[in-house]
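Revision sheet: structure tokens.
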Amino acid sequence: MQIATVSYRVRRNYKLWVMTSPHGRTTGCAGWACSDRGNFGGVEIVEHGEPVGGFVDADHAGFDEVWAGSILGNFMESHAKVGDFQVRLLANLGREWLEGLVGEVGRRQVAGGSTYFVMELPAAGGRDGGRGFVKVATRRAKHTVARRMKASRAVDEVEACVKAAKVGLAVHEPLCVGEHRVGGLWERSFVVTRFVDEAEDVASRFGRTREVSVLLDVAGWLRRLHDAGMTHGDARLANFVEVGGAGGAGGAGRAGGAGGVGGVGGGIIGIDLCQMGQCGPAEDCAVLLGCALAAGATAEQVAEVAKVLGLPVTSEQMHIEAERESQRRYGYKVIGAKGAHDALRRELAAAKPCKVLDAPAGEGVLSEFLRIRGWDVHCADIDPGHFKLPHLPLTTIDLNRAIPFADATFDAVITANSLHRLYNPAGAVRELARVLRPGGRMYINVNNYANVEKRLRFLVYGSLDNQVNSSIAQQSTDAPEANLRVALHMPMMVSAIERAGLRIEKVRPSAMGLVHWLLLPVALVFFGLGFLVGPRSRARNALRYANGWGVLPGGKYLLIVAQKP
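Predicted:
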């Protein structure tokens, strides 16, 4: 074996010396690829004449086309054209395997299959092949030309992995990345990372064990990344995996002790780093702490994790990220128009956490909102199959009838977007007031049928709401309570609340739209006309509330807060 006189100059003043076969044929190897289909003798990496590491592979069949290679941290790379893809290699994979990969990517895209799959890797360099995790992305209609001119997220992920490995952090080992571009604009891309056996994502691990040590390990990993001047960009618990069993206590050392790639020896591995640098360290910390809350971490555990991170994060930032993570995990959505719960959420966020009944809970939107903020949440609904939060217990109830809770059980009661769907709304208010403790508050979120928009609609159409009009036609004798909509006017609501022994504290509008602001001058006219009405008539029609500034110019929904004396 002899060393050829040809070399490739690469980053950091390294030279990649190319070795020839015993017959003197130069293989032209750059990184882990060859430009000659002859035998591959091997590669030695030297710096200023001194070996600094390398590998030998005597049985590699190379590539037809190779560009200058480079060394990035622990990675050596080269480039090759395979089908429509320009492939960047960071491992010795072989032309045949890459052609099979590109073919599989094409088949799955044509068939509309999953964009994630696992593929067996070829054995090379005396190392078992193992498995590769393949992520494929295809451009979407929302991607602009400017976005497609940039590197794809697959390329961003590889670059991020290399940067993190340079500072000693464990990451998924990138093996290759490919881009298909048309006219300089990317159409498709893929990235292959080494599949790590016996790994479990941290969100699942913590959900199963409730051990705070694994959260501290992740915090240590992220702290080291921040200390190196980088950010993760999407530091959710699902983007970290643990290899090798139980975590340590603090984890900053263990997380980086995995040798840079692959997590050999156990510890925390960072994955999905394609958004590296797209946010600041504080945002990274807020995402991590929010995900810990969403996963069920206690306030004490979150405080421990925050201490390791070492950056101040506001409670509101953390709570917002926790809600986002819960919505991703459980897929719940708000019932009603956009902004239906805005006023209610503001009111609850400012209130002191206590024991609360959420009835009906629906899919669990408000229940999770409250749980994240430390409330003792009890959920109830007529349809258990509709509820999407497995970590919260649910009681089956029918608000048209008596509910199975003792008197004075809760400090607060929430009923959102429900009373106008009941044939017995006044009875429901009485039942909810019964289970409320003295001094407790009831939060009622309902459709606003008394705003100026609805009043003008009635003048034109003779009706208040299309849903109210159409719901009657959908009713049946099998389920008479289903599809019911009742136009609850303010006098009806005020009477039901006061007869239940509650005192109205405040009325707030929600889901204010442009039309409500435009109709504000008309609302002033109605407001003035109200003073022409006699005292008895004003009281009977609850004009104090119906013509109040929380109702008359208000949005599509109303929040009514009432207290039990």
